[in-house]
Task: inverse folding
């Protein structure tokens, strides 16, 4: 069963403008050493998908620097492997794509020149360790046109842009409706889907003629026309659609059960760019409680309920509580941070007192000095 | 194919029997070090950082883990089209099969490899030292002095000099005297086991040595003394910096402890000389509840719920609640059970220690390291005395 993976690196990035100001959503740092794309990309690789295209729109320098040749995901291949698909606009103009369907249309030739049976499409806003092979097997078994991934959850306002799917006893999708206004538990579509490649090409060929401009409006809502099935993403699966989501989701990594499930589910690991950092060093004055500490850190101060990325320095007398400190940042002595998200290469000087609240974490920009 | 200026040959076949259970199933260069490294990462990273992109790794003793670790050399940027890392195991030739008999013989049996690359110079390295060294500086001196062989030396304390090969050299660094492990050393310039040869000279010396039936086929015992007696151009390259032979449990323990602190005796980071390694896919270290680490190194994949003091903890180690690990080294994948006390111990890879065990006793010290071998499972409540060796069956 040959499968092509397509990852959208930019969709949903307006949800977290702070973190995506200088990067794609795909390259937002997460969990001490990862980028958001690592989860879905590793999931594909662990599911035997060795042919993956990443659709980019803008600000994709950090993403290219992160994935490079794909070697760290075993995707540097002669046959297939990783392909970055930069924006493409033809001479007729019309500019760069605006939605998912236009994005797919812009990489039509990439999909056409592939010999996969199925195309898996996924976004980077979902934190999960997903085995796509079970969904692919179901897709094939049911002879589906499309499989929509969903997770069962209580609807919150950040889901209002999403879709709820309703299925019959066989798992066939019978209705797709928008979330907004709903509050109860529903099957919420994660924007991940499997589509039979020949069908996708057929739709792309006739898009203009049929007036198809959107997946959700013109295809997924049309479950009478297409044979659509649902597939539940069970286990740990969270979407990051606001800075608060990002904060809460990060903090859940302090639970060892979540760490085990997310980073080593049935032996499936999450890969990331190798940085060859030295292991973390703790001095006599270090005091660490309930925290995640990556390699390359020097911890001399107090760290509690926090996530410290690679290469950070928490100086003697500094106190970091309930915070997320990204790669290579420094907190100098005497400073106290509470509910802070500190972006990469930032510097908090001596004796600063910074505090946010779990629902409104205080964000420090990349490379800034406080 | 463009000729290389210098090719390295890394002697990685040694058994390292003084490391006891650590090398029962693993070659010495593959023994863990500093949390996420193996000893061989140091010479291989030194090669890459020095611009040497072709390395023959000579393996013989228990090569399985070592071979798997080296792979295609990608971890050290040594996966190259022209050159790269090559594992060179003893092989069967037309005139018969031979094991590597001595350091010189191991290189001699791979003369084909040297001839294939036909570099101007050949660097001979060993896989049992922890150090950061720029071989390109040594090569520059080797070329400047038009040496047949350049031997890297480091000054050691005089009272330890009799453990090493000791050189005496003049102002121009030309060596006039060499003694292997002398009882009364004439100087404290010790050989680091790092030799830079002119390739043609090396091939000639090895070929002659192989024909000599009285020779022990060893660089230190045979080749270097012979070159001196022939009055060839034998020079010393004076190295300054950290260098440690980790051939014994005590020295391995000490070298790990040398990494600790803000200003450590040996700093792995803080300069551009990165040490590369295999890099597994582990999440960051997770500290739980009362878990703590002081004056220690903790690596990714660890789950720390107990106390870690003055210790080096490898990748993917679990230290359960109430456990105390002090002055010890724990290699990757091991589990220290709840309430267990460990002091002055080296715990090898994938060891599972049960609850409420005691490793070590009042006599524990760097001279009485408690060693637990790879894959050992210790049941709850086990007590092990200091200085003992426990191995899996």
Result:
């Amino acid at each position: 069963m040959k499968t092509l993976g397509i990852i959208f690196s930019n969709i949903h990035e307006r949800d977290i403008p702070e973190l995506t100001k200088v990067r794609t959503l795909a390259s937002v740092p997460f969990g001490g050493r990862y980028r958001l794309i690592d989860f879905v990309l590793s999931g594909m690789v662990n599911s035997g998908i060795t042919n993956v295209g990443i659709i980019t729109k803008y600000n994709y320098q950090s993403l290219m620097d992160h994935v490079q040749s794909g070697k760290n995901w075993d995707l540097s291949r002669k046959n297939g492997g990783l392909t970055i698909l930069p924006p493409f606009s033809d001479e007729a103009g019309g500019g760069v794509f605006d939605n998912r369907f236009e994005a797919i249309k812009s990489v039509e030739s990439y999909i056409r020149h592939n010999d996969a049976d199925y195309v898996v499409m996924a976004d980077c806003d979902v934190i999960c360790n997903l085995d796509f092979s079970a969904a692919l097997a179901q897709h094939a078994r049911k002879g589906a046109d499309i499989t929509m991934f969903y997770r069962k959850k209580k609807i919150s306002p950040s889901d209002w842009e999403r879709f709820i799917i309703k299925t019959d006893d066989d798992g066939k999708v019978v209705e797709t409706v928008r979330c907004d206004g709903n509050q109860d538990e529903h099957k919420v579509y994660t924007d991940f889907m499997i589509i039979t490649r020949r069908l996708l090409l057929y739709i792309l060929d006739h898009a203009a003629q049929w007036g198809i401009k959107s997946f959700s409006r013109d295809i997924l809502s049309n479950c009478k026309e297409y044979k659509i099935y649902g597939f539940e993403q069970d286990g740990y699966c969270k979407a990051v659609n606001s800075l608060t989501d990002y904060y809460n989701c990060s903090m859940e990594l302090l639970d060892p059960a979540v760490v085990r499930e997310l980073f080593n589910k049935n032996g499936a690991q999450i890969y990331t760019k190798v940085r060859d950092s030295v292991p973390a060093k703790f001095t006599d004055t270090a005091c660490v409680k309930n925290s995640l500490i990556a390699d390359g850190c020097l911890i001399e101060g107090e760290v509690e309920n926090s996530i410290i990325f690679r290469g950070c320095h928490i100086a003697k007398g500094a106190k970091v509580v309930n915070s997320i400190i990204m790669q290579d940042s420094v907190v100098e002595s005497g400073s106290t941070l509470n509910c802070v998200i500190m972006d990469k290469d930032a510097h908090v000087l001596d004796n600063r007192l910074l505090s946010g609240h779990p629902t409104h974490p205080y964000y420090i920009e990349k490379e800034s000095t406080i | 194919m463009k000729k290389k200026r210098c090719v390295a040959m890394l002697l990685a076949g040694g058994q390292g029997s003084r490391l006891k259970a650590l090398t029962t199933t693993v070659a010495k260069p593959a023994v863990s070090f500093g949390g996420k490294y193996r000893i061989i990462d140091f010479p291989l990273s030194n090669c890459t950082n020095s611009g040497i992109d072709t390395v023959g790794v000579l393996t013989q003793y228990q090569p399985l883990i070592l071979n798997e670790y080296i792979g295609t050399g990608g971890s050290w940027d040594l996966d190259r089209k022209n050159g790269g890392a090559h594992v060179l195991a003893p092989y069967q030739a037309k005139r018969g099969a031979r094991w590597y008999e001595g350091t010189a013989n191991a290189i001699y049996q791979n003369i084909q490899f040297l001839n294939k690359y036909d570099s101007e110079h050949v660097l001979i390295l060993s896989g049992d030292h922890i150090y950061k060294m720029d071989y390109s500086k040594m090569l520059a001196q080797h070329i400047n002095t038009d040496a047949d062989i350049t031997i890297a030396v480091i000054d050691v304390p005089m009272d330890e000099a009799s453990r090493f090969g000791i050189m005496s050299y003049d102002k121009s660094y030309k060596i006039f005297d060499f003694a292997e492990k002398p009882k009364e050393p004439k100087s404290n310039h010790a050989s680091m086991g790092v030799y830079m040869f002119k390739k043609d000279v090396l091939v000639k010396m090895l070929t002659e040595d192989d024909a000599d039936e009285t020779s022990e086929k060893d660089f230190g015992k045979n080749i270097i003394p012979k070159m001196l007696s022939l009055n060839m151009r034998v020079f010393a390259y004076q190295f300054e910096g950290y260098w440690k032979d980790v051939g014994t449990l005590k020295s391995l323990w000490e070298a790990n402890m040398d990494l600790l602190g803000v200003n450590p005796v040996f700093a792995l980071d803080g300069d551009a000389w990165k040490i590369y390694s295999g890099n597994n896919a582990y999440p960051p270290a997770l500290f739980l509840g009362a878990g703590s680490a002081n004056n220690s190194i903790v690596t990714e994949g660890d789950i720390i719920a107990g106390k870690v003091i003055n210790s080096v903890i490898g990748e993917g180690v679990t230290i359960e609640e109430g456990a105390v690990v002090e002055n010890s080294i724990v290699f990757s994948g091991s589990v220290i059970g709840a309430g267990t006390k460990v002091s002055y111990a080296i715990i090898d890879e994938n060891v599972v220690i049960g609850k409420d065990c005691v490793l070590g006793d009042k006599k524990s010290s760097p001279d009485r390291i408690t060693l637990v071998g790879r894959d050992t499972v210790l049941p709850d409540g086990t007590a092990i005395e200091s200085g003992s060796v426990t191995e899996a069956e």
Q: What stands out?
A: DSSP finds ten helices and 30 strands in chain A.
